Model the fold of this input.
Amino acid sequence: MNFGVIGYGYWGPNVVRNLASLEGSQVLSIAELNPAAQARARKAYPGIRVTADTSEVLTSPDIDAIAVITPVWTHYELAKAALENGKHVFVEKPFTSNVAQGEKLIDLATRKNLRIMVDHTFLFTGAVRKISQQLREGTLGKLYYYDSTRVNLGLFQHDINVLWDLAPHDLSIMDYVIDGNPEAVVATGQSHLNCHEDVAFMTLYFPESVIAHINVNWLSPVKVRTTLIGGEKRMLVWNDLEADEKVKVYDKGVNITNNEGLYSLLVNYRSGDMWSPQLEQVEALRQELSYFVDCISTGQDPFNDGCAGLRVVKMLEAASESMSKRGSLVYL
Amino acid sequence: MNFGVIGYGYWGPNVVRNLASLEGSQVLSIAELNPAAQARARKAYPGIRVTADTSEVLTSPDIDAIAVITPVWTHYELAKAALENGKHVFVEKPFTSNVAQGEKLIDLATRKNLRIMVDHTFLFTGAVRKISQQLREGTLGKLYYYDSTRVNLGLFQHDINVLWDLAPHDLSIMDYVIDGNPEAVVATGQSHLNCHEDVAFMTLYFPESVIAHINVNWLSPVKVRTTLIGGEKRMLVWNDLEADEKVKVYDKGVNITNNEGLYSLLVNYRSGDMWSPQLEQVEALRQELSYFVDCISTGQDPFNDGCAGLRVVKMLEAASESMSKRGSLVYL
Amino acid sequence: MNFGVIGYGYWGPNVVRNLASLEGSQVLSIAELNPAAQARARKAYPGIRVTADTSEVLTSPDIDAIAVITPVWTHYELAKAALENGKHVFVEKPFTSNVAQGEKLIDLATRKNLRIMVDHTFLFTGAVRKISQQLREGTLGKLYYYDSTRVNLGLFQHDINVLWDLAPHDLSIMDYVIDGNPEAVVATGQSHLNCHEDVAFMTLYFPESVIAHINVNWLSPVKVRTTLIGGEKRMLVWNDLEADEKVKVYDKGVNITNNEGLYSLLVNYRSGDMWSPQLEQVEALRQELSYFVDCISTGQDPFNDGCAGLRVVKMLEAASESMSKRGSLVYL
Amino acid sequence: MNFGVIGYGYWGPNVVRNLASLEGSQVLSIAELNPAAQARARKAYPGIRVTADTSEVLTSPDIDAIAVITPVWTHYELAKAALENGKHVFVEKPFTSNVAQGEKLIDLATRKNLRIMVDHTFLFTGAVRKISQQLREGTLGKLYYYDSTRVNLGLFQHDINVLWDLAPHDLSIMDYVIDGNPEAVVATGQSHLNCHEDVAFMTLYFPESVIAHINVNWLSPVKVRTTLIGGEKRMLVWNDLEADEKVKVYDKGVNITNNEGLYSLLVNYRSGDMWSPQLEQVEALRQELSYFVDCISTGQDPFNDGCAGLRVVKMLEAASESMSKRGSLVYL
Done:
């Protein structure tokens, strides 16, 4: 499978490194506008053509698939051109800048029988696979809430706010591990340094009393990557910054009891062992790209296809609308 | 100063222990309905009268001040009776169940020239004093945000939701350390076990782009007590669960720079030393009660008076209204 | 069971509090030389006689057992007098200042058919009970090593060095959980502020290649209470400063493989899940004193009897001898 | 400066990567016996000659300096051949297998006017530089102790024990930051899986009551890299596993006071702020190799020269002797 890669900035080198070393794929050319990044690409990969001419990569007859690793606002035009030229597309998250763009790309790929994969890398980590397994197998029981904090002194993006930058990770994971789709969204936030919000909070209402919450922040002095997941039977903490023991499952919970007394409590606590399962130690992006090569070969749509990417964009679009109204409820 | 204490449940024993051992105060009687709690009080304080008759305490001519350490829904009636009987009142947080009650109590106390203190204990901790000092002295520069997480497998209350139970701590601290009052509130949440929300999230919009956020949860497998405070010049993390080093001040920040390039970033990071100031190691409740005795003696209103308590109740009432509408913006 | 308590300094109040509230025991009198401590005892326990006259307590005909909670160098004379007066003895760790004293007390107690219990409180904690269970049940497989770090900015003792102050905890636990007795000891250390060592390190050679090590330090800026226990099948970490998850069992290990290559490694790593068992949440001292009352009633020697205390003193005496020679091997 | 590199196993690739990208140096050839490692080198560096013939590299007239990145037992012969062929030598730690070998290499280099640098990489980290600065500038006051724990489930070496593998890091740092040389060594340890000790403890007596201690372990379930440094005025903790805040300086200490009372304490504690200085974020190995290139150019001996390497080997040799006698004192 021959790849062209557009964009060799922060994340592009990781995509090229994996595509270049995977069995079954190779990178023929890289399009990149920044001269310094071009130089880095040429030095690292003497055998790969590096060009500033994006259309050369998009139209090359030797190329089967295009990886679009550029800012969000360019995704639509680049992915559209790639599809129109008959190329499969691997596109950085978030999928597109708005819902309409995403729908058009999905439609185009369907008509052309091409694959779209949206780079929701976290779905291929050992942690998310283990969490998904726990939820599917019922270890946690009925889901109560999903609460993620993802803050750091962050890479400010100049075309999107902090929600569009950081929340796609959490939204794609929620979309993957929670049954059902969110019904409504409330988002709040504030910008301090330019026009885009650098601090934001997002609540999603799912069916059956499941509530999800995301806290994203580009102005935090410390890095936090912690997700709490509460269920009826057990509860889970995922701390992605732990070297080991990223996922911990707690045999803890509460049982409601009748209690007539005035000053006493309604609930009994249940507390038991904690268990931290070993996680797969593979590079998630490598797994994801290998899976993409497989999907192209077999003609199957990946589970993180354009539709998955679109569901995330829908939530982001709704969140932006809610945030612009300082937190009004927006139905999905 | 002679005290009567109403309520000897979870927090009451701490109030009695401090009032009994402080110079300048003593406890004459305790009213408590639960027989087991009565027995504990009698065993610990053979010299204090323990009774189930609340009115006996409220009307005793020897008593100067009443500490009301009971569930929220009882605060108004008890505090009102105390004031009507000419007693000063120390009342557990949150002050009252609604704004109207709080206003009536303040009015009554003013007319009777009596002191009300609302038990916002955290304001007397070494951590909050140090944080307040940092903000006042400009160490952090202009304030950007205040973000608190206060979750644990929690003491379910049967008369209030998790916001009314846990958020008063954060709201009273914000009220104390942030200049200006919040303009509007958005709150979201969900109940899973009974009619009261056990998970809730609250955003407060302050003037000048200051945003505050509170995450409270009775269903968390782990206890978290972390507050991030971001400013233009420095940022602060308060982790109240650390044995030492509860407060850390980071010489970190961002500087906006012009940047014309397509793929590059807009912001420069600034990173320097971290500094963890030593904190006073006194018991906060002891400090607070000692201050209350002083205020009664001097006839001065404490800074955590009924008005401070009322401001917190206003925010809680607005948050409840917002949460009941699944996150609509409520102006204060 | 009527108790007399000698010593109401740092630890004595905890002993009195438990003996006074346990069913089956009461405290009749407390001997304490320090007037301030006497005053505290009188205020807390109006019903208990407090005196500076130790012999009054030792000879009182109403008293069945004496708790000796005083500095080490006084243990022998006080315990001897108690036994000679026909009282059972609960004595603070370390048991005595030297082996000869310990042997005499054991001999005396045997002749008088009295019980001695040495206050090795840690043996009654949920953590040590769980660790002991893991080792007995073979969860860890054959034991390889036991390595404890117990450092803090510490309570300097003026009659003993840091080994005699802090190591008894670890030595009593090792004595309890490791099969067999140590064969030899090496200890090193240094004094910086007075004649007693404030930093010390101790290695114990047990049979079958088991090695134990203790790191104790009165001059550490941070408090550490961590024990690593390595076994053939699994390994365990006990961090006593964790609020929860004090004990973690790791399904980790190494397997030796033949390997002829020059630059390659000899050993395969094995890594699996981690498991943190829930621990009993009882106060260890309360459990221990309740057990002492039982032992007196039934006439059975406790497992933490004088012989257990003596084994710890033997290790300390050997360690002191080794340390005075800057680390020579001393056989036990 | 043209380099030959011998050994492309675990650490060699890092040396090659830096030498190849530094200004002022390039790698002409790599000698490596293992075919798989050869293949990796060829793929990564198509322009560098890769050979199994070590002597080809050692004798090449184009090569100015040789990096010896092989097991310890090969260092002497390889470095000797390099020096005899007129090449400067960069050699992996520990310098040699014994003192005699080290002395011969130093002598040979002196006679040939060639530079030897021993790869004590840690001396070039931001953390060690900052610690050294604190000690030199007197921030900590008179040094009391240096205590390092360096344990993990470790890379077993088949030619050396855990002391020779892990302790050189700490010994080279001590040699760098502590004034004066150690007078005597005591080491204890145990082997469990083959003939080499996998758990070991080492005490070093320095002049003026300074004591140092190293705890190394290949069989620990958790990785620990923590050093405590105590001084008269302040104390320091270096946790190398922290992402940020690796070095913390505590304004803590003790003051001796006269105290005549029997049960009371001798020492007052002093506690103040903690301060975590920002550290340089450069790759230590890169700094070190750049410095080596400078030293060769200027003809100056590096501070981590053969003599520095030899001092570490002397401590290791003495420790091995002590450990073989189960902890006897060995003078240096």
